[in-house]
Amino acid sequence: MTRLLKSYVCGDWYEGTGRRNQLFNPTTEEVIGEATTGGLDYAAALDYARNVGGAALRKMTFAQRGEMLAAMASAIHEHRDELLDLATESCGNTRGDAKFDVDGATGTLAAYAKMAKGLGDAKFLLDGENIRISRSPRYVGRHVMLPRKGVAIHINAFNFPAWGFAEKAAVALLAGMPVITKPATATAVLAERIVEILVNSDVMPAGAFSFVAGSAGDMLDHVTGQDVIAFTGSAATGAIIRGGAAVIKNSVRVNVEADSLNAAVLGPDVKVESPTWDLFMRDVHTDMTQKVGQKCTAIRRVFVPADKIDAVREELSQTLQSTRVGNPAIRLVRVGPLASKAQLDDVQAGIQKLAEVAEIVSGEVGPGELYDLPSGKGYFQQPVLLQANEPEKAGVVHEHEVFGPVATLMPYNGEASEAARLVCLGGGGLVASVYTDNRDFASDCMVEMAPAHGRLTFGSKKVAEHAYGPGMVLPQLVHGGPGRAGAGEELGGIRGMSLYMQRTAIQGDEPMLAKLFEDGTTAG
Ligand code: NAP
User: Fold this and answer.
1) What's the 399 CA to ligand 1 centre distance in angstroms?
2) Ligand 1 probe mutation, 237, 343, 406, most atoms within 8 A of CB
3) Would you tell me which of 157, 216, 241, 286 could form a disulfide with 233, CB atoms 3.0–4.6 Å apart?
């Protein structure tokens, strides 16, 4: 019989009732699990987290919360090989893709554990110094940030069941808020196993961590003004969540990480086969193929000076065509299947949509030749490169995110202002990357592009050997972006905790405030 995934709520495992969703191995299309949250009492689950978990976390110092994060990271790391295999089976990840997700989770937890050490035995944050607010020097004000007394509800997308949980949970737990995490149902097998490892390792106080395996049901009908919802997924679901009656009535804080048409710009100064050129080519190829392009930060639009577009197309097409697609369990394979049949259908429909305004210049709709997969099964799509010679008229390329191994090449006139104008047609993005060794070009790009993005990355010859591609989200830097990208902000080191804390202005006499602030510390 197929295994039914369990939720972990009110300090216990819960088996849902009623209609079940089937979960598939995306390589073989075999059913590997089922999920349902039918009958789950969400009101009780949220209350338990708030009352039991929240109270326990708020008593802990930052250093103790950090030790908990470090222990979580170790527990996951101890099961690394098993989790990598499970990521291949349940998400279709190649070994490299699986490491990106699983090691990304451990790395983020460990990074926040390290930051916690720096905050020591404090339990909350002080924001700035005392401010004299009257004629008397003794009457002062200062801002404090205390953990909110609700629960942090984390709703994640299907593409990162491990990292997606960890990048949100690390920050909320360090801030002192209990977490209830809900992965996307399609890839919840890996998330459930991670939660099982964490629960068995007994490193979190009761109620600090809960897990939902399946639909969110009526969970969001029970939110209060002290809760926080952090959502990653499509803009459409983000809008539904933001518009929920209880969310609106109780002014619940909502952070949304949504779609993004991330752009890469090649500077006019970059010569073919120079280190900066090679970095650019490597980043575009990585983003098109890593996780089969199922990264919210992946490059979707590539802007190249018109006189270099032929050279870029030829080199990129050649690399894409020699990239192996097939059985993700085989080390030589770089591109595995998409995560689900629904994703495959979406991606293929998306390519057709882009093809109405752009020409397919490499690849085609369909799996292509698959390596080590005689069965002909699985949710495979080979990488596809398109070219739109008139970016201005290619509206859909700037508006429709195809969440797969797909990117569109477009020419521009070599001026930073023009590149930025075209990039900004994306309506707000998570990240954009600029490849140049010309600092004036870079500076113009920053001024014009930064307001429309959460992160900008500059690739140049000085860092060609060391640069992380734009697709990699780092715990120290903010993740999120304005407009289409959801207007959210996560991570960014200590500053990420502000999502889970309430900033309050405190006024009073100076000695009184000194006593009140004994358990606080200034960040950084
Ligand atoms: P999705 O369909 O919007 O689902 C995202 C999550 O929301 C899933 O856990 C889903 O649960 C849940 N959900 C769906 N309807 C809900 C509702 N009415 N109330 C509460 N929760 C609900 O998105 P997806 O297909 O998983 O993810 C793909 C999208 O995510 C892409 O567009 C991508 O750009 C975006 N994404 C963004 C980022 C980022 O950081 N900005 C990262 C990754 C992905 P079920 O699975 O149970 O339906």
Assistant:
1) 18
2) 237
3) 157
Ligand 1 atom with the smallest distance to the CA of 403 is 31
For the Cβ of 156 lying below 6 angstroms from any atom of ligand 1, the answer is: yes
How far does the centroid of ligand 1 lie from the alpha carbon of residue 134, in Å? 50
Kindly tell me the burial class for residue 240, based on how many C-beta atoms sit within 10 Å of its own C-beta (0-12, 13-18, 19 or more). Answer: middle
pLDDT band, residue 402 (cuts 50/70/90): very high
Distance CA 52, CA 210 (A): 12
SS (H, E, C) 78-91: HCHHHHHHHHHHHH
Q: Which residues are identified as catalytic? A: 257, 296
pTM for the whole structure: 0.95
Element (H, E) at 228: strand 228-232
- In the predicted structure, residue 1 carries a pLDDT above the cut 70: no
The predicted structure's pLDDT at residue 256: 97
Q: How far apart (Å, rounded) are the C-alpha atoms in residues 428 and 367?
A: 31
pLDDT tens digits for 306-350?
Answer: 999 999 999 999 999 999 999 999 999 999 999 999 999 999 999
Measured between alpha carbons, how far is residue 181 from residues 123, 164, 168, 215, 248 in Å?
23, 10, 9, 12, 21
pLDDT at 523: 78
Which two structure tokens, joined as six digits, stand for 296? Answer: 């919210």
Ligand 1 centre to CA of 512 (Å) is 47
CA atoms of 36 and 371, how far apart (whole Å): 35
Pocket lining: 165 vs ligand 1, CB cutoff 6 Å: no
CB-based contact 384:325 (threshold 8 Å): no
Query: Which residue puts its alpha carbon closest to atom 43 of ligand 1?
Result: 296
pLDDT digits (tens, 9 = 90+) for 350-381: 999 999 999 999 999 999 999 998 778 999 99
- Calpha distance 148→226 (Å, rounded): 6
What is the b/e burial string over 397-412, where b = at least 16 CB atoms within 10 angstroms of the residue's CB?
Answer: bbeebbbbbbbbbbbb
